Fold this protein.
Amino acid sequence: MASDQRSDIYVVRLESSLTDSETVLRMMDGRHARVMGLLVLTSERIHFRSRRRTGPTFSVPLEEVLAIEAYTRRGTSTVRVITPYGSLTVDQILGRQGEMLADDARATIRGEPLPEQDPLRLLAELRALRDSGAISAAEFEIRKSAIWRDI
């Protein structure tokens, strides 16, 4: 995920809305209904959470996804999630991240194996190390960037 410190608060808010059984597979910044937010693929659903407290949010269980389409043009991706109730579009996703999310969503729906480590838990552990003084702020940023690259 291309991200910076401004995204940290949204990741923390996201973590509180996940169930204990969910694993985050991909997350990225994107725009839905003209509002920027965090688009997340978990082991159970596709979730969009607006950066605004009253902005648009959606959460679609993977079993309700009929199809997921993605394409990249001029350096940004667009993802369209098709459900029995209509379609949801998220655009302004950096690079090919939207295509990677769509590929991972299809694989998860087919029941292919999940990654071993949840990136949100890794970030929480990393924050705890930084807050306790075990690692410097610079080391925290380096390790956080590596986690984002893997998502």
Remarks:
- Residues 119-132 form the longest helix (14 residues).
